[in-house]
Amino acid sequence: MSKHIKNITLSTQRSNISGYELIDIVEKHNGILIPAHIFTPFKSYYGNCSDRLKDIFKEKYEKIFAVELGLSSDTFLADEITELENKTFVTNSDAHSLPKIAREYNKMQVEDISFKEVVKALKNEEGRKIIANYGLDPKLGKYHRTYCDNCNSSIETKEPILKCPKCGSEKVTFGVFDRIELIKDKKETKSPENRPPYIYQIPLGFIPGVGGKTIEKLLESFETEMNILHKLSKDDIEAVVGEKVANSIEKARKGQAKVQSGGGGNYGKII
């Protein structure tokens, strides 16, 4: 990649190579290419480049086995686009900061932990597969709904719009939900039969009343956030942090918390 990137030692450099060209380089080294956070505004494939991935990858489109959905979309939203029906969906955290790793993750059925087995799971080969996707409620993502950069307000309209209804500005960051509404080609969402479940999780840091010290206390007792969000009983949590916090976590776990959608680079909020 040093032939295509000005400073190879920096972490997030722009390259002067297209996905269409890159897939050949990746294949040459026995790798696979997965377009990441495909709906996010500014620089992603659907968010800014094209209405269809096939227009980017052309005859090489079938060499794309999987796509990564990003924080602001989920299986239900992505399956509104027909060309994604035979692609495996993965949900992954960008590794920008340690606390956010596993905010989104996949459960895979494999025989051992190796690159070869992961590739088989992504290709749905020989019984290997993704058996569940875990991720944020898309409303909590930074770009779920359109946001006016002029008057700093979230725009939640039934139809996608390119102008702020409050101040009339055209300086808006288009939301993932709105972008999918604009480019989808299905009248009703129907996922393929082999599509694994998408399991929503609200990270502890999003839950009101659950601060840094409380999270530290919970992790000291229960080791991982996954345990707290998916495995423990409410009584277990209450024994460590009390009834009020346990109730808040339980509401979030059961999907009973009210969510205010994120947009324009701002995370959504639990009300």
Any overview of this molecule?
This protein is α/β, with parallel strands linked by helices. The protein is built from 10 helices and 10 strands. The protein has helices at residues 19-28, 45-49, 54-57, 75-78, 115-123, 176-183, 212-222, 225-231, 234-241, 243-253; strands spanning 66-68, 88-90, 105-109, 129-135, 146-148, 153-155, 172-173, 198-200, 259-260, 269-270. It has a 3-stranded mixed sheet. A 3-stranded antiparallel sheet has the order 6-5-7. It is globular, with a radius of gyration of 20 Å. The N and C termini lie far apart (45 Å). The mean pLDDT is 90.
- The SSE string, one letter per element, is HHHEHEEHEEEEHEHHHHEE
Main pleated-sheet profile: 3 strands, mixed
Oligomer: single chain
Note poorly predicted spans. none
Can you lay out the helices and strands and say which pair or pack?
Blueprint: H1 19-28, H2 45-49, H3 54-57, E1 66-68, H4 75-78, E2 88-90, E3 105-109, H5 115-123, E4 129-135, E5 146-148, E6 153-155, E7 172-173, H6 176-183, E8 198-200, H7 212-222, H8 225-231, H9 234-241, H10 243-253, E9 259-260, E10 269-270
Parallel strand pairs: 1-2, 4-8
Antiparallel strand pairs: 3-4, 5-6, 5-7, 9-10
